[in-house]
């Protein structure tokens, strides 16, 4: 207490602005609250949650959001009461150099500091996730999961396709000349086009069906796709669709078959479309895959694909596939059992929902050892969800099923098992996010924008009175409505003049520029005028001040609308060449800096306006 | 003799005459004039000592005299410049709605000078003060400040024109923290901030109340706080709107006396314009008085009035006596009575003779009339408040 008192006096005597804005106290408050939120996030996060919900939802799920809002609301009320009880500006005290800039920066910092607790909560969550499910540890289990998965569930796409494709009998690829015709034509697609109707002098929208042209492929007719592998003539082909314009208002989509020299060119869906038109076998060594230096590069490559995280890339899948084949060729029954047990431990460790009987599965696999293509394991019967449902319905529960199985001698009956792969996916996804960089730049920019908005509102309160600000808010609303009405009504009656996007945008932003200019001109006139009501001057000033935040964006958009080039091609399709300002508007840093600079520039008017006699 | 030495001598006289409170206030003024932090500390120590030994008056006097002795050894302080603070020429302000107009007013305000601004309610006193404080813009006329003020921008200029409204705004926090905040805004930091604030707390008798809040202070102390806060701002021109309203007689006298002393500060002499209804009290301290009647000014220079009154062949008396108008007329019949006005409680007697108050008083005593009070208002602006028939 004594220390606080001394600190308070020190600030009051040495740094009156800090004392007045209570910035050090606000910072301390934010640090304490942030620390508490960190602990909250850390404690709240459990293995159960990690497996089930994305980490970004914990803030809301834990009621931390509600708490965050309440605490910040209370803080803002208490802080505002403390701050607005004194006013150097309203007392016309002489202000130190860059007083308003420093005041605005203080506000900015205070309001930004209120967002810290959100960040630290997520840090707490991520920290706990990193402790409970370290990515390095999970990476080590990727192999286990993928290998074990081959014996379990829902692997037709990965294992079935790849194993059967590449190991060891390439001849299992279905190929024949008749297979080159794509009969499954996709749904007819439509696209909009804008067409100029000369009779109505208007642009109108027209819908055009996307025509799909069927082609028939005969390898002999496409010798440029030939390749020679191991002295054998082959054609490895991929499908690719191409859009061809027939005329301006219609297109053809043609499916092409193109040659693929190496397997690593066949991604991401290349394998599905692969056709080998050679009747002879090719050895698997032909299908080389890209090697990664380390597991993180593999991970980086996987990220781009939409499939399950641990086999996201076809190349990686192929690698796994090869490894798995090696594993199969070298492993004993004990090795497979060890693999399945390891998998089970992993599921246990992370509280993933499952029901596995590893010995039964192993037994089932080994009984089919003579037919090591594993299709019965991962084939249709095990992968058919309907079959699983039927089994469940039939036996009611696992006990019944096991009782049934003990009575029957049906060695071909697949064991009943269940793994919550969704939870496994969520675990890896959360772990992955927990290892993202601590600072999320987009969240940082958003929090700064939030702080700037709050700072501006409270800054206006610091230099004006509440009644004036209420009038300013109302007047601002009227201006917005007037602008909308003016724009809409004018567009309605002069639609033909503003048919293109360029003209519409030019119209909108030039209107905003004119309104802004009128407002600034009014402010200047009132400021220079001798017999103008002070209240009117203050209201105009506040409106201009608030407008100054948006003005740079308006200006950029206006300049963009003037400088951008739009042209219609021979098919009346619109194309735009943007100016630099278009990219500036989309850059949050440029917008933030320009808005902040505009506010700072406007602070120069505060003293003369406030001091002006009534 | 240098004014600083005179001030010290005068202070010693107060102490020697056992006017310890008055003497101490003068002592604090002398210390403030030095702007020497070492003396600030000694004064603060002295007050702290007094707080612990409230009954040891003799010892306190001795310590004060010792401090005075030390002050006397200092090099005299003071500003020699005596340029006008503000020159107001033909200033007028018109209200369009009511068509009420103030002015034209012309004033020349010098440092150390107190102007009284008197007039009935609604005659434009507050408006005139606000126009001078540049809170309202005049319709005509000019206000020219001294060079150092004139070259400042409007906001900074207004920072040096301290206008204290009749109803002072509420403040929050302790009295001392508010004063410290004001001082820091005026660039007074660190130890100087603490010392100067305490000096003004002492000067305006707020020592015991320094940790009080607004709600814990009486009106008189609130006004003292405002004055302390204003003097911390080192204003060039102080504009006070009815500072004596809601104050008891003693508090009024104290504040007026303080204003008189502070205006005559050697280190920071300032001009004061003071509006009030307390005519006699204001006249006691004001060098010059403006009487506003329906917005038009009547100027009364107290020193000139004094001289003028010697040649005036008229006496105006205000009296409260237990008589009817007819009885009073009979008693003062021997005098050349021009007019007797009665407003139901007080008589205003106009006599066409110079300085005859003593004779009339004697006559009333001889007639065994019970006199509540009698006052010669021949030179006072009070006479302008009287409705002539």
UniProtKB/TrEMBL annotation, chain A:
Ranges that cross the membrane: 23-43, 63-82, 103-125, 441-462, 469-488, 508-527, 536-559, 589-610
Keywords: Membrane, Transmembrane, Transmembrane helix
The organism's place on the tree of life at top rank: Bacteria
Name listed for the protein in its UniProt record: Uncharacterized protein
Organism: Fluviicola chungangensis
Automatic annotation (TrEMBL), chain B:
Domain of life: Bacteria
Gene3D superfamilies: P-loop containing nucleotide triphosphate hydrolases (3.40.50.300)
SUPFAM superfamilies, A to Z: P-loop containing nucleoside triphosphate hydrolases
One GO MF term: ATP hydrolysis activity
Keyword Plastid in record: no
Keyword field: ATP-binding, Nodulation, Nucleotide-binding, Transport
Domain ABC transporter: 86-319
Pfam families according to UniProt: ABC_tran
Entry's family note: Belongs to the ABC transporter superfamily.
Protein known as: ABC transporter ATP-binding protein
Origin species: Fluviicola chungangensis
């Amino acid at each position: 207490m004594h220390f606080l008192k001394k600190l308070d006096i020190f600030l009051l005597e040495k740094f009156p602005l800090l004392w007045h804005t209570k910035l050090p106290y606000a910072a301390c408050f934010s640090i304490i609250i942030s620390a508490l939120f960190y602990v909250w996030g850390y404690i709240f996060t459990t293995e159960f949650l990690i497996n089930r919900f994305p980490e970004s939802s914990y803030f809301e799920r834990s009621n931390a959001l509600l708490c965050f809002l309440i605490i910040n609301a209370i803080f803002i009320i208490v802080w505002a009461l403390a701050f607005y009880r004194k006013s150097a500006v309203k007392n016309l005290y002489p202000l130190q150099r860059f007083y308003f800039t420093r005041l605005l920066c203080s506000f900015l910092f205070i309001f930004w500091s209120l967002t810290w607790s959100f960040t630290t909560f997520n840090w707490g969550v991520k920290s706990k996730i990193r402790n409970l499910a370290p990515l390095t540890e999970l990476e080590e289990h990727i192999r286990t999961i993928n290998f074990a998965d081959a014996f379990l569930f829902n692997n037709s796409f990965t294992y079935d396709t790849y194993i059967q494709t590449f190991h060891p009998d390439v001849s299992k690829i279905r190929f024949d000349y008749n297979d080159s015709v794509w009969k499954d034509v996709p749904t007819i697609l439509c696209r909009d086009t804008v067409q100029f109707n000369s009779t109505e002098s208007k642009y109108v929208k027209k819908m055009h069906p996307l025509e799909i042209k069927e082609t028939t492929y005969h390898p002999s007719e496409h010798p440029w796709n030939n390749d020679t592998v191991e002295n054998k003539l082959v054609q490895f082909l991929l499908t690719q669709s191409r859009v061809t314009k027939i005329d301006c208002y219609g297109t053809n989509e043609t499916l092409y078959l193109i040659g693929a020299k190496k397997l690593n060119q066949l991604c991401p869906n290349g394998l599905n479309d692969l056709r080998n038109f050679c009747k002879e076998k090719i050895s698997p060594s032909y299908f080389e895959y890209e090697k990664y230096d380390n597991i993180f590069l593999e991970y980086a490559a996987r990220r781009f694909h939409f499939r399950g995280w641990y086999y996201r890339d076809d190349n990686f899948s192929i690698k796994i596939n090869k490894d798995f084949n090696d594993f199969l060729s070298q492993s004993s029954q004990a090795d497979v059992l060890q693999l399945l047990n390891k998998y089970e431990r992993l599921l246990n460790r992370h509280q993933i929902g499952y029901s596995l009987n590893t010995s039964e599965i192993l037994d089932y696999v080994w009984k089919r050892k003579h037919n090591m293509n594993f299709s019965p394991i991962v084939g249709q019967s095990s992968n058919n969800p309907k079959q699983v449902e039927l089994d469940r319905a039939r036996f009611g529960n696992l006990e019944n099923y096991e009782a049934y199985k003990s009575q029957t001698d049906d060695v071909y009956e697949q064991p009943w098992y269940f793994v919550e792969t969704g939870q496994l996916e969520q675990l890896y996804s959360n772990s992955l996010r927990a290892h993202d960089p601590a600072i999320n730049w987009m969240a940082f920019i958003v929090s700064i924008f939030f702080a700037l908005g709050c700072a501006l509102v409270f800054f206006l309160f610091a230099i004006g009175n509440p009644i004036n600000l209420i009038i300013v808010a109302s007047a601002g609303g009227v201006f917005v409505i007037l602008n909308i009405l003016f724009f809409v009504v004018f567009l309605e009656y002069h639609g033909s003049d503003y048919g293109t996007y360029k003209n519409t945008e030019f119209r909108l932003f030039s209107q905003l520029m004119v309104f802004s200019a009128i407002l600034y001109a009014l402010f200047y006139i009132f400021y220079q005028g001798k017999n103008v009501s002070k209240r009117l001057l203050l209201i105009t000033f506040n409106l201009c001040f608030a407008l100054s935040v948006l003005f740079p964006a308006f200006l950029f958009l206006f300049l963009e609308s003037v400088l951008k080039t739009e042209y219609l091609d021979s098919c009346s399709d619109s194309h735009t060449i943007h100016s630099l300002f278009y990219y500036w508007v989309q850059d949050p840093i440029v917008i933030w800096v320009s808005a902040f600079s505009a506010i700072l520039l406007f602070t120069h008017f505060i003293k003369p306006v406030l001091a002006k006699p009534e | 003799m240098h004014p600083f030495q005179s001030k010290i001598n005068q202070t010693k006289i107060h102490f020697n005459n056992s006017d310890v409170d008055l003497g101490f206030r003068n002592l604090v003024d002398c210390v403030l004039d030095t702007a020497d932090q070492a003396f600030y500390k000694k004064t603060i120590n002295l007050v702290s000592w007094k707080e612990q030994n409230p009954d040891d008056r003799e010892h306190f006097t001795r310590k004060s005299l010792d401090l005075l002795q030390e002050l006397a050894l200092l090099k005299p302080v003071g500003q020699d410049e005596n340029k006008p603070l503000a020159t107001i020429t033909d200033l007028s302000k018109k209200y369009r709605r009511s068509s009420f107009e103030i002015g034209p007013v012309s004033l020349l305000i010098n440092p150390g000078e107190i102007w009284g601004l008197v007039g009935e309610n609604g005659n434009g006193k507050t408006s005139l003060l606000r126009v001078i404080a540049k809170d309202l813009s005049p319709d005509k006329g000019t206000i020219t400040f001294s060079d150092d003020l004139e070259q400042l921008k409007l906001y900074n200029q207004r920072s040096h024109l301290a206008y204290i409204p009749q109803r002072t705004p509420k403040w929050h926090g302790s009295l001392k923290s508010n004063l410290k905040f004001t001082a820091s805004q005026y660039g007074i930091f660190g130890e100087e901030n603490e010392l100067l604030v305490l000096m003004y707390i002492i000067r305006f008798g707020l020592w015991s109340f320094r940790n009080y809040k607004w709600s814990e202070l009486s009106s008189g102390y609130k006004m003292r706080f405002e004055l302390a806060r204003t003097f911390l701002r080192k204003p060039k021109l102080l504009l006070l709107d009815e500072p004596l309203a809601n104050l008891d007689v003693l508090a009024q006298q104290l504040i007026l006396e303080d204003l008189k002393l502070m205006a005559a500060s050697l280190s920071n002499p300032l001009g004061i314009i003071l509006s009030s209804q307390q005519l006699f009290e204001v006249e006691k301290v004001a060098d010059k008085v403006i009487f506003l009647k329906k917005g038009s000014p009547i100027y009364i220079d107290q020193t000139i009035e004094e001289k003028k009154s010697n040649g005036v062949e008229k006496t105006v008396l205000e009296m409260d006596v237990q008589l009817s108008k007819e009885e009073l007329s009979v008693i003062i019949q021997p005098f050349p009575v021009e007019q007797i006005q009665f407003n139901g409680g007080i008589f205003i007697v106009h006599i066409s003779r110079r300085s005859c108050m003593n004779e009339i008083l004697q006559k009333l005593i001889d007639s065994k009339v019970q006199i509540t009070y009698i006052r010669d208002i021949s030179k006072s602006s009070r006479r302008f408040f009287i409705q002539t028939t």
